[in-house]
């Protein structure tokens, strides 16, 4: 089985390579890729079993082929083997994640751009199998005392599911709906990937209004549109300005007014939590998530009017290309306007991974609105809630008691059950739903990436084998993800706690409980 390496592991992989070379300078070339990858986990948690290292590597999308790993070829820009692409192409399987600019299915994909690279088989196909699953009673004996920790407050629910069979192995109030905090993003991701598709890209474009010299910057809902010189693969406002200036010069236009169009979205722009460093006003047009400090993740002060700020930045970039500009009020672009230029976001699969790894609220709200647009609903908080629920219902998920008041989980009116979260994770790991793969690959890796990077110590059993989405609000602590147990069985889990008073203690209790699954054969 050949499977792709997720982006999150790239930060650990160079260190693993150096360690492996120092320890085994004469390791055979055919096994070097596996050794390098697994040592990244082994050096952090020496208590892992061979089965966990092997199955964990598969779960995390590392290359584990039988015999000739090196022959699979180098990694491409998205972590997929080039040989894997060739194999899939020979079987006429198209689709997949991040494989080159303009390769998506969005209506604005540039003419002549490369087609989506073919996808390989599901990253989790080989897990489970003949390895026995934990028994329900043995699992309860391990988890029940841990879930009674006082730090978890008065209300706590839990569920553990065997990913291979879909069988629920443990449940504690698993059908009781609680405030999920940022684990809501798992549901948002599943809805977006199923409704719009993993290859869909979000377009930002410019048009010239009829019989005028008014350029309109039209927002398509891409919060990752960036004005930085180093785009890191995201859509570039600089490129859009350069291409727009070139198109204007072909028309002998060197002076324009610049307006902007945010009409794709409706309803209030401000989240119910109000002005907050965790989220910009939700707009169809923004640059760098309206961050004022140059950061790309985490809390930051935001501009009060992201669309206006984006238009001003665009004007300056046009001026840099010799186009004189004056500002105009927001407008709705005419249907008869001439197209000037366009840039596309990475595919939704990439946005999902970034959202889950960094718990990015701006991307979450944007993805929820992409679900609404795909369903023909208003791109608003209310329209997104209707559309997300409908998309998850089509996937056959248990939605009793669930509410999706926003896409990010910042709204305390959100409600999810542990049963729903584990069902989402099991669905994402299923070979029958490859379109949901980036949910699994986007989950933070305990002790290595994202919001779990600093939460697991080197000697914690869950380090490297727990992948989970965190959730934190005042009085709310949640954790939902996957873990490989000591027998190599892949389990999905969800732990939700409300009325917590010690956030650090609650996080530690949840991490300890997830780690217990990693050390559990439980039979």
From TrEMBL:
Gene3D superfamilies to which the protein is assigned, alphabetical: DD-peptidase/beta-lactamase superfamily (3.40.710.10)
Superkingdom of the source species: Bacteria
Region (Disordered): 73-128
EC class: hydrolase
Pfam family, one: Peptidase_S13
Keyword Hydrolase appears in the UniProt entry: yes
InterPro entries: Beta-lactam/transpept-like (IPR012338), Peptidase_S13 (IPR000667)
Biased composition annotated in UniProt, kind: Basic and acidic residues: 89-101
Keywords: Carboxypeptidase, Hydrolase, Protease
EC assignment: 3.4.16.4
GO molecular function: serine-type D-Ala-D-Ala carboxypeptidase activity
KW Transmembrane helix (keyword) present: no
Any GO BP annotation: proteolysis
SUPFAM superfamilies in the record: beta-lactamase/transpeptidase-like
Compositionally biased intervals (Low complexity): 104-113
Entry's family note: Belongs to the peptidase S13 family.
Protein's name according to its UniProt entry: D-alanyl-D-alanine carboxypeptidase/D-alanyl-D-alanine-endopeptidase
Organism name: Streptomyces spongiae
């Amino acid at each position: 089985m050949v499977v792709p390496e997720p982006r999150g592991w790239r930060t650990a992989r160079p260190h693993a390579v150096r360690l492996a070379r120092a320890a085994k300078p004469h390791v055979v070339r055919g096994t070097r890729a596996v050794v390098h990858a697994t040592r990244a986990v082994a050096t952090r948690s020496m208590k892992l079993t061979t089965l966990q290292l092997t199955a964990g590597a598969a779960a995390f999308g590392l290359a584990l082929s039988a015999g000739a790993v090196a022959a699979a070829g180098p990694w491409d820009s998205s972590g997929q083997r080039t040989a894997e692409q060739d194999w899939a192409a020979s079987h006429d399987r198209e689709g997949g994640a991040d494989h080159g600019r303009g390769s998506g299915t969005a209506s604005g994909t540039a003419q002549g751009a490369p087609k989506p690279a073919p996808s390989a088989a599901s990253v989790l196909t080989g897990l489970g199998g003949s390895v026995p699953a934990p028994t329900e009673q043995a699992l309860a004996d391990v988890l029940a005392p841990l879930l009674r920790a006082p730090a978890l407050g008065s209300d706590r629910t839990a569920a553990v599911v065997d990913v291979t069979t879909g069988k629920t192995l443990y449940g504690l109030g698993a059908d009781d709906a609680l405030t999920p905090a940022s684990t809501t993003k798992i549901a948002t991701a599943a809805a977006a990937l199923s409704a719009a598709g993993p290859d869909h890209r979000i377009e930002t474009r410019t048009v010239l209004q009829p019989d005028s010299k008014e350029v309109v910057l039209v927002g398509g809902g891409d919060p990752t549109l960036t004005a930085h010189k180093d785009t890191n693969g995201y859509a570039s406002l600089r490129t859009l300005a350069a291409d727009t200036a070139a198109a204007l010069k072909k028309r002998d236009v060197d002076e324009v007014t610049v307006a902007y169009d945010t009409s794709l979205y409706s309803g209030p722009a401000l989240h119910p939590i109000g002005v907050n460093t965790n989220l910009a006003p939700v707009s169809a047009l923004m640059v760098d998530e309206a961050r004022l400090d140059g950061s790309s993740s985490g809390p930051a002060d935001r501009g009060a009017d992201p669309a206006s700020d984006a238009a001003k930045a665009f004007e300056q970039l046009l001026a840099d290309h010799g186009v004189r500009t004056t500002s105009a009020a927001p407008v709705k672009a005419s249907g008869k306007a001439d197209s000037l230029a366009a840039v596309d976001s990475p595919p939704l699969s990439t946005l999902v991974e970034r959202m889950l790894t960094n718990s990015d609220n701006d991307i979450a709200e944007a993805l929820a609105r992409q679900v609404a647009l795909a369903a023909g609903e208003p791109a608003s908080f209310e329209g997104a809630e209707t559309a997300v629920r409908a998309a998850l219902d089509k996937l056959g998920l248990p939605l009793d008691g669930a509410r999706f008041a926003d896409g990010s989980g910042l709204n305390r009116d959100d409600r999810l059950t542990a049963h729903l979260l584990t069902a989402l994770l099991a669905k994402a790991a299923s070979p029958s739903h490859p379109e949901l793969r980036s949910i699994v690959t986007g989950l933070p890796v305990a002790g290595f990436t994202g919001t779990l990077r600093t939460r697991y110590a080197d000697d914690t059993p869950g380090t490297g084998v727990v992948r989970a989405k965190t959730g934190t609000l005042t009085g709310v602590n949640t954790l939902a993800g996957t873990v490989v147990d000591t027998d190599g069985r892949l389990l999905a889990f969800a732990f939700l706690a409300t009325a917590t008073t010690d956030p650090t203690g609650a996080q530690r209790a949840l991490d300890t409980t997830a780690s217990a699954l990693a050390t559990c054969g439980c039979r």
